[in-house]
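General statements about sequence and structure are easier to judge against a single worked case. For one protein, we set the task of working out the structure tokens from the amino acid sequence alone. This step matters because it turns folding into a mapping between discrete strings. The amino acid sequence and the backbone structure tokens for this protein are reproduced below.
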Amino acid sequence: MDDDPIIRELTKQSLEFLGYHVETTENGEEAIDLYRNFYERGQRVHAVLLDINVTDGMGGVEAGERIMEIDRRAVLIVTSGQIDRSLNHEMGNKGIKACLAKPFKIAELQATLSQFITE
């Protein structure tokens, strides 16, 4: 989930290059709806990337909290141009597994995902 269409597309292409199936959304509301649809159909979502700051709509932290209400096993990874240690600690308390600072490299994305995806 990212409100910037260029970042959304580049991240999608990077993930597909790594072999992942990717669905994208523009804001938190869409991300929650998409996750709920997969969950209700019994389809596993291996990880959710959420941009913390969204211009129009719900951001990643609130969306992550709502996704955790649907599925306590959700793997949430937030992205932001402004990540520091205090943010990492705060996110951990909200069920978020990792934070990626933008701009991130494909190797960083792959290393982060490999910590949580075993299939």
Q: What stands out?
A: Residues 53 and 59 are 5 Å apart (CA to CA). The mean pLDDT is 90.
